[in-house]
């Protein structure tokens, strides 16, 4: 049986690579820059970039106060690290001409990536604007993984991990699912080449497989390699440090996701409008689904839970956003939120410490979204997509399952290989004392001003203003030095308490 499965899997791979060679499509009627399309792509790039700081605040609000700066910094450092990687090799590996399985160095250092449109990716926008938009996707993906290892992974190890993971895992999956290029042969004929998953027929509008499945399953592997947090008890999780941070982060993610999905149309057109609408519809449906489940199961309509539900809805809709009619977005949001909600209940039985549930939200959510895309996709919405099982094309569901399996495989083995190298070279985990004190200490900064420092500042401020009526009003006593001294003691007591 194992040999049969291996043979079938090998045949599917072979068919993918062979089918990646087809005649070039008819040339586009226009390849000139359209100002509307270009403006939308530039705005979408900015929206997607904003998601990464938003993710930092979302994650930062969920950890303990002694790790909030480090947690947010993991998202920020991913921005800088991936930008460098993307310019030198990342974009060329992911989208450059090569084979159906691998990119090339042809566009390394952004060589030949300029202001002229590349019709294979966007006939009406500058090639460099497409590159920039895709760079934002590459940035947020390893930042998502950080949620699985917060509060204990070495900062330097994470930076190196981001470089290696982006090159080995992300660029490979992006090439398989999204790459396309026209190749002129020696006889003058033109062959249209694509990544093998795309050529086979799998579809992913904005990254359900490439981004969410890969980050979710990679986070699970990373959590296993780095180990559990000190004092971690799955039955009594740490409370969120700052709920407003979580809510702010969720709002920024939702806002940026409109460009994330809408910009993936690479034009200001119908599929872009559908993708933007579907994104909010699914997020709203998932928000209320999670809220009602929390109210029914835990008897508390949790703000953190509802925000997490909205993110799940956005994850689930991502691969389908530009391929389905808006009514189905409600189904994806509700079903996706319910599946992830109850799947997350199994966390307490897992031998891993996936700190912020990245595996469930993005891994499981991405699988649900990619699978349901195979059910509900229709060319009535996007002629460049494909009909799903509910529209008379059940084979798409098989292609989606293959894309899911390959994304999981690359993520599991690629992440494990990278972490093994790091573990036996520079190490993965912060020292015991650093973890105990909090990883903010490595930055020499704190997320909030400590109580004693705040008290000293207030004492100095109130002391300098004690003779005026303002100080008396703030302290609730009469003016004068004795009033300031008395209230300073009361302030210190409250801070220490």
What does this structure look like?
- The chain is mainly alpha-helical and 497 residues long.
- 63% of the residues lie in helices and 3% in strands.
- It has helices spanning 2-19, 35-60, 68-95, 127-145, 155-178, 196-200, 208-226, 243-262, 270-297, 303-317, 326-344, 358-376, 395-423, 432-437, 451-464, 469-475, 481-496; strands at residues 21-23, 180-184, 190-194.
- It has a 3-stranded antiparallel beta sheet.
- Helix 7 packs parallel to helix 13.
- Residues 466-497 have low confidence and may be disordered.
Basic shape: globular
Counting helices, strands and paired strands, the structural category is: mainly alpha
What is the succession of H and E elements? HEHHHHEEHHHHHHHHHHHH
Low-pLDDT residue intervals, each spanning 5 or more residues? 466-497
Largest sheet: 3 strands, antiparallel
Helix content: 55-70%
Strand order of the largest sheet: 1-3-2
Number of helices: 17
Distance between the termini: 66 Å
By DSSP, the count of extended strands is 3
Radius of gyration: 25 Å
Which range does the strand content fall in?
Answer: under 5%
Q: What is the average of the pLDDT values?
A: 88
């Amino acid at each position: 049986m194992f040999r049969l499965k291996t043979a079938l899997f090998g045949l599917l791979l072979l068919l993918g690579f062979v089918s990646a060679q087809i005649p070039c499509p008819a040339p586009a009627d226009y390849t000139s820059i359209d100002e509307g399309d270009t403006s939308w792509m530039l705005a979408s790039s900015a929206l997607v970039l904003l998601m990464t700081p938003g993710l930092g605040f979302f994650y930062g609000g969920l950890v303990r106060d002694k790790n909030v700066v480090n947690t947010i910094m993991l998202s920020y450092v991913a921005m800088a690290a991936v930008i460098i990687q993307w310019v030198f090799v990342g974009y060329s590996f992911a989208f450059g001409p090569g084979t159906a399985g691998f990119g090339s160095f042809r566009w390394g250092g952004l060589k030949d990536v300029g202001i002229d449109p590349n019709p294979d990716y966007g006939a009406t926008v500058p090639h460099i604007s497409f590159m920039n938009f895709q760079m934002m996707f590459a940035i947020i993906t390893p930042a998502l993984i950080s949620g699985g290892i917060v509060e204990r992974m070495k900062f330097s190890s994470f930076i190196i991990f981001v470089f290696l993971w982006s090159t080995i895992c992300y660029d490979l999956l992006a090439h398989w699912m999204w790459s396309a290029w026209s190749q002129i042969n020696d006889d003058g004929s033109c062959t249209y080449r694509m990544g093998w998953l795309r050529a086979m027929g799998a579809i992913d509008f904005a990254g359900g497989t490439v981004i969410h499945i890969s980050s979710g399953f990679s986070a699970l592997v990373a959590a296993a390699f780095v180990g559990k947090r000190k004092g971690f008890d799955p039955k009594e999780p740490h409370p969120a440090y700052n709920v407003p941070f979580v809510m702010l982060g969720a709002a920024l993610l939702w806002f940026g996701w409109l460009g994330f999905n809408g910009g993936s149309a690479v034009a200001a057109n119908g599929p872009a409008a559908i993708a933007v609408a579907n994104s909010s519809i699914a997020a709203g449906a998932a928000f209320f689904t999670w809220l009602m489940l929390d109210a029914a199961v835990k008897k508390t309509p949790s703000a953190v839970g509802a925000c997490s539900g909205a993110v799940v809805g956005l994850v689930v809709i991502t691969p389908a956003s530009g391929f389905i009619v808006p009514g189905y977005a409600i189904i994806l949001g509700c079903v996706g939120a319910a599946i992830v909600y109850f799947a997350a209940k199994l966390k307490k039985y897992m031998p891993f410490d996936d700190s912020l549930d990245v595996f469930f939200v993005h891994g499981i959510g991405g699988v649900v979204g990619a699978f349901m895309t195979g059910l509900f996709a229709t060319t009535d919405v996007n002629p460049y997509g494909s009909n799903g099982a509910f529209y008379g094309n059940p084979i798409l569901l098989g292609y989606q399952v293959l894309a899911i399996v390959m994304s999981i495989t690359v993520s599991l083995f690629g992440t494990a290989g990278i972490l093994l190298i790091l573990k036996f070279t520079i190490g993965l985990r912060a020292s015991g004392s650093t973890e105990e004190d909090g990883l903010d200490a490595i930055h020499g900064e704190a997320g909030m001003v400590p109580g004693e420092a705040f008290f000293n500042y207030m004492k100095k401020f109130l002391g300098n203003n004690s003779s005026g009526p303002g100080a008396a009003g703030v302290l609730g006593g009469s003016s004068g030095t004795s009033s300031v001294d008395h209230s300073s003691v009361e302030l210190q007591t409250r801070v220490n308490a």
